[in-house]
Amino acid sequence: MSDALDDYNSKRDFDATPEPSGAVKRKRGTAKAQALQFCIQKHDASRLHYDFRLEIDGTLKSWAVPKGPSLDPQVKRLAMEVEDHPLDYASFEGSIPQGHYGAGDVIVWDRGIWKPIGDPLESLKKGKLKFELEGEKLGGIWNLVRTHQEGKQKPWFLIKHQDAAAKPEAEFDVVKAQPDSVLSERTLIPKKRKGETAEAKPVEQVPAPRKRKGSGTLTGAKKAPLPATLKPQLATLVESAPSGDWRYEIKFDGYRMLARIENGTVQLFTRNGHDWTAKLPAQAQALASLGLESAWLDGEVVAADENGVPSFQLLQNAFESGKSGAIVFYLFDMPYLNGVDLREVPVEERRSALAKVLERSEDEILRFSEDFGEDASDLLASACQMNMEGLIGKRVGSPYVSRRSDDWIKLKCQQRQEFVVVGYTEPKGARTLFGALLLGLHDKDSGELRYAGKVGTGFNERTLKSIHAQLTPLEVKKPAVVNPPTGFEAKGVHWLKPELLAEVAYAEITKDGSVRHSVFHGLRSDKPAKDITEETPKDVSEPSTPAPEKKPKKSATPTPGKIRITHPDRVIDASSGSTKMQLAEYYVSVADWILPTLKNRPIALVRAPEGVAGELFFQKNAERLAIPGIESVDGETVMLINNAEALVGAVQMSTIEFHSWNARAPDLERPDRFVLDLDPDPALPWKSMVEATTLTLTILDELGLTSFVKTSGGKGIHLVVPLTPKDSWDSVKEFSHGIVKYMAKLIPQRFSAVSGPKNRVGRIFIDYLRNAKGATTINAYAARTREGLPVSVPIFREEVAEIKGANVWNIHNLHERLGELGEDPWADYAKTRQTITNEMRRKIGLKPVSK
Asked: Where is the ATP-dependent DNA ligase family profile domain (predicted)?
């Protein structure tokens, strides 16, 4: 009997393609405690198409749908049956190399669970499969109907059933309206194919540019009430400028800001919907002076340095000092104006109308973001030389959509590499701890370490503090570089042993070897300092002689501070190539964020001596673990991690995860929080998690409890409810269990109050069991023992609907989020004072308790 995946495997060389081999798969015909999954993958192969896959009997039954699904029951979409795929293909995104079967880019366009109506195997044999989808984009009842066409091909039709989820295609084309991945920030800008002109665009791209109907007429404008809220359109990062008709603007290094104007009242909102009107009074007043009846305006608030270059650090300083008058509001779009919705108007027409509106303003605090029609490569080079972030490109003719879109793209300046840190300067002005880092590079010919300039931007208070602690132990009297700066530049310099590496972005390296317009991005130590030279493009026209293979060093490599990390190059996660040293560096970089959340909480460690794929050890006390800096509690066999030394020391002992109690020492008998862990059936789409989180937050709000949200780093969401220590463990656990039972009774089709995979098939179990004494929850900012080393991250509640999953941040990209945060999502956590009352207990059906 042949395996269902024989056809799939025979067509692929798994040494060359990143596609999953299906070596690990669920046994066919066996029951499992998980709903059936489906996925639709957008595949830019020889022809752009959509692969529709349903989990049936242990594999993904698959059909290629050339035009993609339609929500219109009157539209039949051709679906060609293809070979079965392995179950883990449902999450595959990537690029299949040229020359291989199915070569091209793949993204997960939709995913979720499906429910067959009738016996699916019998229905397949009869050629008519009826089913219900619950995905991020598709829902309701669908049909797959086999045609009677003869031949090797197996054509079917994919048809939407007439129900509440159906929509006429003339009103809503789901393929065009929602083109991007549901798992990541990936999108597809389909490649140019033979016979296409530079202007020709595949069907899946946005409508062609529309012309004005006449003077003063905006194409697609329609009368409509002023929207109460508006989410901004977001740009997609691309490596190079695509062909076609695009206009480019400067990418500002500031805060995205939307202005809502109604009857002369101005409100300013951040990207996440936070009202910042009080922080920007001058800007609000300038907008009010435009005399608009109603409007939504989109732009970026920016603070520029003395050279006119936008500086994120100066912007933060302006907010912190309350000097908003120095902040300029660059406006680049106008989705709504005076009773008219402009979102379907082509971008060039919206911007032209915005420019005319801004002609009324005499205040330099409001400015129009000019665009340029020149070659994108030349513009990007100029922007980088000016120390700008890069460019934003907007496709001519495109509408305004409140999501990430490939109609808006961003091109970033990419010059970036490691430098040896050879010294630092004294701080000046408001700066504390140090002013700039002095950099060095080894000469490729002589091997000498030579001075390469300074980097003094890119730091905040947290990074200044953590980096300074690593600099002081390395101070020496003499410079390590052979050409140290002299005169004024050498004044107040502290020289260092050349051990630390700084990753720095810059516009260029001058002829004398110094960086210009440098921006600090982080410390790293995954390379030996002696190997750091200027990175230059390699000439591949002539074959090069391979460098001799280097043997791995056996000696320990120092990590910042006093802890030495043994086996620093050991790979602990094969999927990302992450090493033990990179994990240690991550925890050093977030020490100022994670340590306050760990302080005085008993900690349990998840240790992985063989990496995330090996055996894991859950450890609640420090016996037989020589971790420097770790603390204990009198009379308790628990450990506390209250300092960076203990944090990194635990990583040295192969710790990846840090789990914490719901109480703090010395009062370990009264919890100071409870946690509701929303644990979904893994096959459920993220949309289900968004709905569940919103519903649970609503219940907590109605009870009068302030709660805080964080991702689990896995599939779920944690809702953390701080408490003033008062009630016993049993009382708090009973209350949290009461909430869960209340919700499961209220919406049984969504929630389960009983643990175990079999009890949450197609549903979400709200785990209250973490609220007993000694139970723990993954700590905020802690990494997880999963592929990619994702991190549990505090978020604003509005962000649940904006992110693609609970594992979007990991040890390699969290620094980008932390650097962009205008405010801490948990800023009010420590100030929250609340207790569980009898009135709260009554509302969820619990008996009152005597106090």
From this structure: 320-412
Decide if 530 contacts 557 (C-beta within 8 A): no
Tell me which CATH code domain 418-531 carries: 2.40.50.140
CA distance 163 to 138: 12
> Is 192 in contact with 99 (CB distance < 8 Å)?
no
Helix locations, 472-619, DSSP H: 580-589, 591-598
Number of C-beta neighbours around residue 375 at 10 A:
11
Residues 6+ away with beta carbon under 8 Å from 38: 52, 53, 54, 55, 90, 111, 112, 113, 114, 133, 135
Provide the CB-side half-sphere exposure for 647 (13 A, CA): 27
H runs (alpha helix) in 704-772: 729-746
Q: pLDDT (tens digit, 9 = 90+) per residue, 421-478? A: 999 998 877 678 998 999 999 998 888 999 999 988 878 777 888 899 999 999 999 9
Contact between residue 473 and residue 493 where contact means Cβ atoms under 8 Å apart: no
- 177-224 per-position pLDDT tens digit: 899 899 887 777 665 554 443 333 322 222 222 333 333 568 889 999
Cis before 666 (ω within 30): yes
Tokens matching residue 518: 């440098």
- The DSSP bridge partners found for residue 795 are 709
For residue 415, give Cα distances in angstroms to 241, 504, 666, 815.
17, 9, 51, 19
Say if residues 524 and 418 touch (Cβ distance below 8 Å): yes
Orientation angle between helical segments 686-703 and 729-746, nearest 10 degrees: 120
Characterize the bridge pairing of strands 255-262 and 265-270: antiparallel
**Token pair of 63 as six digits:** 């059909």
Distance CA(8)–CA(20), nearest Å, equals: 10
- Residues identified as active-site: 251
Instruction: State the span(s) of the chain assigned CATH 3.90.920.10.
Output: 673-775+790-842
Inter-residue contact 340 to 222 (CB < 8 Å)? yes
Query: Taking every pair of C-alpha atoms in the chain, what is the biggest distance, in angstroms?
Result: 88
Burial group, residue 1, by CB count within 10 angstroms (0-12, 13-18, 19+):
exposed
Under 8 Å between Cβ of 761 and 755: no
Domain(s) of CATH 3.30.470.30: residues in the chain: 231-412
Task: Give the integer Cα–Cα distance in Å for 826 and 707.
Answer: 10
Retrieve residue 668's tokens: 């370990």
What's the half-sphere exposure (Cβ side, CA atoms, 13 Å) at 731? Answer: 21
Question: What's 226-241 look like in SS3?
Answer: CCCCCCCCEEEECCCC
Instruction: Give the Cα-Cα-Cα angle 455, 458, 463 (nearest 5 degrees).
Output: 105
Which DSSP string do the residues of 161-197 spell out, in sequence order? -SSTT---TTT--HHHH--S-SSSS----PPP-TT--
Query: What tokens were used for 164?
Result: 């509440």
Which residues have C-beta within 8 Å of that of residue 157, sequence separation ≥ 6? 76, 77, 78, 79, 143, 144, 145, 147
What is 673-775+790-842's CATH superfamily?
DNA primase, PRIM domain (3.90.920.10)
CB hemisphere CA count around 268 (13 angstroms): 21
CA distance 39 to 62: 10
CATH architecture under which domain 231-412 falls? 2-Layer Sandwich (3.30)
* Residue 851 binned pLDDT confidence (cut-offs 50, 70, 90): low
